[in-house]
Structures are given as structure tokens and as C-alpha cells.
Amino acid sequence: MEVLKVSAQSNAKAVAGALAAVLRQENQAELQAVGAAAVNQAIKAIAITRGYVAPNGINLVCVPAFAEIQIDGEDRTAIKFLVGPR
After folding, report:
1. How many domains does the structure of the chain reveal?
2. Residue 82, class by beta-carbon neighbours within 10 Å (0-12 exposed, 13-18 middle, 19+ buried)?
3. How confident is the model at residue 82 (pLDDT cuts 50, 70, 90)?
4. Over 80: is that where the pLDDT of 49 sits?
């Protein structure tokens, strides 16, 4: 499954385009975000993506979860969003 990493500086429309492409190709994707601003961008991207794929008859569903990741050798807690069709 493709993992897209979202940061606070990510452009929500660009992430949405990448997410839509992955969903059309693989039927599911995962977004990872660390921090409130990054989670905000990820949620906006998921909402925008719904509009991109809806004309193709795809209704997205999003399942949030925690993930333990390492950044620069330091353990961090990320929010991951499993995104796929309903």
C-alpha cells in the first residue's frame, strides 16, 4: 500500500491529486501526518480528494489510527489515515 507523508507545509490540493492517483491505481492508500498542522492538511486533502473521485462513482472512507515512526532516530507518534472506497 502506498504511504503518502503529509507535513504542515504540504499543499492540500497537491496531496489530494497524489492521493486520487494512488486510489485510482491501487484502490487504497495511507496518509501519515505528525503534528496538528500536518493532520489538518491531511484531512483537507482527503476532503478535496472525495470531490476528485466522486464523478468516477468512488465514495471514500477514512479510518484514522496511530502509528509509531522514527524521525531522525527519535520515536514519534503519527496519525495515519487509511483511505479507500466504501
Report:
1. 1
2. middle
3. very high
4. yes
The 3-class secondary structure across the chain, one letter per residue, is CEEEEECCCCCHHHHHHHHHHHHHHHCCEEEEECCHHHHHHHHHHHHHHHHHHHHHCCCEEEEEEEEEEEECCEEEEEEEEEEEEC
Strands 74-85 and 2-6: unpaired
Whole-model pTM: value is: 0.91
50 in Cβ contact with 62 (< 8 Å): no
**Residue 1 pLDDT > 90:** no
CATH number at residue 73: 3.30.110.20
Domain housing 6: 2-85
C-alpha cell at 16: 489530494
Percent of the chain with pLDDT over 90: 80
